[in-house]
Amino acid sequence: MPEAAAPVLDVQGLKTVFKTRGGEVHAVNDVSFSLRPGELLGVVGESGSGKSVTMMSLLGLLPSPPAEIRHGCVMFDGKDLLQVKPRTLRAVRGGEIGFVFQDPMTSLNPVYTVGMQIMEPLRKHMGLSKRAAATRARELLELVGIPDAQRRLDDYPHQFSGGMRQRVMIAIALACDPKVLIADEPTTALDVTIQAQILDLMLGLREKLGMAVIWITHDLGVIAGIADRVLVMYGGQIVEHAPVGDLFRDPQHPYTRALLKTIPTISGERAKRLTVIEGQPPLMTEAPNACPFRARCDVAFDRCAVENPPRYPVGPGHDAACFYNARTKGPRDA
Amino acid sequence: MLDQTVKPLVRVRDLKMHFPIHAGLLRRRVGEVKAVDGVSFDVMEGETLGLVGESGCGKSTCGRALLRLYDITSGDITIDGHNIATMSQNKLRPLRPTMQMVFQDPQASLNPRMTVEAIIREPLDEHTSLSAEEKRDKVAALMDAVGLNRKFAKRYPHAFSGGQRQRIGIARALALNPKFIVCDEPIAALDVSIQAQVVNLLEDLQEQFGLTYLFISHDLSMVRHIATRVAVMYLGKIAELAPREALYRDPLHPYTKALLSAVPEPDPDLARSTERVILKGDVPSPSNPPKGCNFCTRCPAVMDICKQIDPEYRQVQPGRFVACHLFNETTTTAG
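Above: the input entities. Below: the structure tokens describing the complete assembly.
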């Protein structure tokens, strides 16, 4: 990975709040990260940790109200996506930034043929003629490994299996040669053998097309196999950020460490008993003035309840938002 | 672990569950979905049999058919000495307390209009003649056993998180002191950090009450943790059944091999160095399974015979059952 290259996407201090009758929900709180050209950035977290909302906020996909983006800037191609006009944003979405959603059945339109849905961004964003778009659509289906592509362009989504539909979604996202592809749990709804096919396909495509990818998942196994760098999210915040090898070898945040211990594996030592992270995920209605993990943390102390830890650097390209220093086994200095 | 004197609590022989497909104006029967197509296995007393497979392979149908939640097409099911395969639902009712089920979706399997107490008490109302006070004590004891705060007995399911709701479902299944519980993907809808809590609870309860589980799951790593023996299903049939260690160390059936190699391991070095077996294509439709072996369309080690003759499900090593022509004595072990 080119370390020094300027990031293609740079997010600073993003904060998204949902206004509900029960008060404000702090879904994303001060999230900053950058994406370098050609890299695969993994984002892991449990449901409700804010990973999807982060990505939807930066593309302006959240309905407002109830969502409100309080702060932040999202620099892409010299523009702040949070400030530009809706028209400009529409040109970026589906054009230079592609998006693949979790559930391929609900994100494809059931009453249009797959061919039309792939051609739509080609005609809208790239201004291709109908014929050119049809040719390109066929190439795209071939690229994502759908056999008999020409004939299948005229099929409807329900005629495809889950794995094939996800390939169609990827083809649509790739239609306009995006610089950035955001994939939100793209394999979660699929079986493991189909997931293996899609992961293999994505790695091949990234190599071939050289785009940067943000891969959102809750599955640490998937992350281990494909990511270059990883963001771990918890309670709407980034709690740890590390190159993939360091994250698994030397996790610094108590949540990451607990998470890695709690998942069973199919090889290696079989644990007699699973390690449990006690308690429940946090309610996001509280103002984020304390560490979101403190109630379930085994090393929490007084400071964690009154102050939200910033991200402390703990190694090259590695930071963790925790007042406890796992290496010295004591509190970090203020 | 599993000593030879243990007797089977559940015996299933050649279980078939076919669902008819009706089509046309007259709703004529035009075919059938062979969801479970000739499955045989035993579940030993006190063990956990893991049943794994991809979606649509028939594992949930198998679990439900086994408890006679369906009227099965054919086959024999013996649970705790009773042959229940063709028993009428009326005769089955007094036997229900011994066999219970924990469902996948704790949101859908709990009545939103009943309090937690009422949900857990319902089996007691139906099957026992305890006094109101005895029932209340029993409910409180069950809530303690599954780690729910007694104070929440009057609350409704929506007030609980996914993991807690699954605990309510488990308490309900335990109410009648069952011997055998079918757990149908009990952790699939839960977050990773909550899954471990529920699995540990199931293990504790097994020890405490001497339960026998059929644990249905698509999560191979969790099954490795909880199961004593593991059965792998593909398209309505069992491809392989083996003790846990043997299956994960040395899978025999090509499908088991592919399935295990597809599981993403949370270790970057391992994940990048191991060569994966990537299966081509999708699972065929169970209404129109291929001729011969049902895995022959995707099998990396397919032979001519596989496309003609359905392999017999047989014991190839002590305690290990496989349905694959690679393990026929007549054919040499090619590939």
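Note for the figure: The mean pLDDT of chain A is 87.
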